[in-house]
Write a structure and sequence with these properties.
45% helix; 14 helices
């Protein structure tokens, strides 16, 4: 039986890696329908093809979800948490609520795209309206192409094309009301995202503030001064505030790249930021975009060599050397400092990342996939 389309029938907003209320196109579009909203997060560790989360990523997700729940409650809503196979969870929630539409922001990895495409097809066959949006990137991976219509494979011309053509859309405001039906939910604690026995997360707790508010604070602290010396200080591992440290906030969608772009461009226009340093910073935001382009057109990028010539590389196998590298016990001070910083805080400076990665592959001759 087809659902009856009434204004009281709810819409589902499926949160994924977009754990924010401001500048969230899927959420804004759902709010604009005037329907009651079912705000849903699915913790799916059973669907095939997805890389499992590590402990630090789970720690961040738990903290980010807690912050997201708090913000949603402040707007009069509640976040429904379910675990299990995504397709079944969404089917169950539709059956329980009578929802007639589902909204989400797009994902770009190979397994994610395959899941979303299949899910969208099946929902539409069941007369459920599906609306998807770009809430993760400045532009879709297929939007900026070379003169011959092919994707860019080199960053510098991609950056030049982006810089000359991109105009950030208007900011989507934070919804004032997020009311909807009461839906059965699992507790956040039941997901087991926080480490126990032992709890090794003290260093992460002291370093980070996951969540939308933490992301916004991190951006504004960076724009209050460090951005004006970014071009040089980003290359200095000894500089505490030399980089923005926004990458995990971007990964979990606590802030959008468009929000960053607008804030920086506004500061440039107002004469608040040194334009050269500010544009260097934006080029690093666009480097993230370029990485998504490469991932979109090369979905095996996380496990296969981008250059197939390296498939013939005669790698060594040395479990002791690998463990020493992982634990920061190589005897090379900057390599060990970087790895120990990563263990303790979840962070490693971009230049040190290059050093430790080169040490693994070019000195120890161990394959990068490990």
């Amino acid at each position: 039986m087809e659902p009856v389309l009434t204004v009281s029938a709810p819409a589902i907003v499926w949160f994924r890696e977009d754990l924010r209320l401001a500048d969230n196109p899927a959420l804004a579009a759902a709010v604009s329908t005037g329907r009651p909203l079912v705000l849903l997060y699915i913790h799916d560790e059973v669907s095939s093809g997805f890389r499992p989360r590590g402990g630090a990523s789970k720690w961040w997700l738990g903290k980010s979800l807690a912050a997201h729940i708090h913000q949603i409650k402040a707007a009069g809503g509640c976040l429904t948490i379910r675990s299990g196979e995504t397709a079944k969870v969404i089917s169950d929630v539709i059956a329980e609520t009578g929802a007639v539409s589902v909204f989400w922001n797009r994902r770009y990895g190979g397994p994610e795209r395959a899941m979303d495409t299949e899910l969208k097809t099946n929902l539409k066959q069941d007369s459920i309206e599906v609306s998807t949006f770009n809430g993760r990137l400045l532009t879709e991976p297929w939007e900026i192409t070379t003169g011959s219509g092919t994707p860019y494979k080199v960053f510098t011309p991609y950056w030049k094309a982006m810089r000359s053509t991109y105009q950030a859309p208007s900011l989507l405001p934070t919804p004032k009301s997020l009311t909807g039906p009461e839906v059965a939910s699992e507790s956040l604690e039941s997901l087991g995202l926080q480490p126990v026995a032992p709890d090794w997360s003290g260093g992460l707790d002291s370093e980070w503030s996951p969540g939308e508010a933490g992301a916004t604070e991190r951006l504004w602290n960076f724009l209050e001064g460090p951005i004006n010396t970014y071009s040089d200080d980003r290359n200095r591992p000894d500089k505490e505030a030399g980089t923005s440290r926004l990458s995990p906030h971007l990964h979990f969608g606590e802030i959008s790249p468009a929000q960053i772009w607008r804030a920086v461009q506004t500061g440039i226009s107002a004469g608040k930021f040194d334009e050269s340093n500010a544009m260097t910073f934006l080029s690093e935001v666009v480097w993230r975009e370029f990485s998504y382009v490469q991932l979109y057109y090369n979905p095996d990028l996380a496990t296969e060599n981008y250059n197939s010539d390296f498939d013939l590389m005669p790698w060594r196998s040395d479990s002791d050397a690998l463990q020493a590298w992982q634990e920061g016990r190589t005897g090379y001070p900057i390599v060990d400092a970087g790895m120990r910083q990563l263990w303790h805080t979840g962070y490693m400076h971009n230049r040190v990342r290059m050093i430790v990665a080169s040490f693994l592959t070019k000195h120890l001759l161990l394959p990068w996939q490990v």
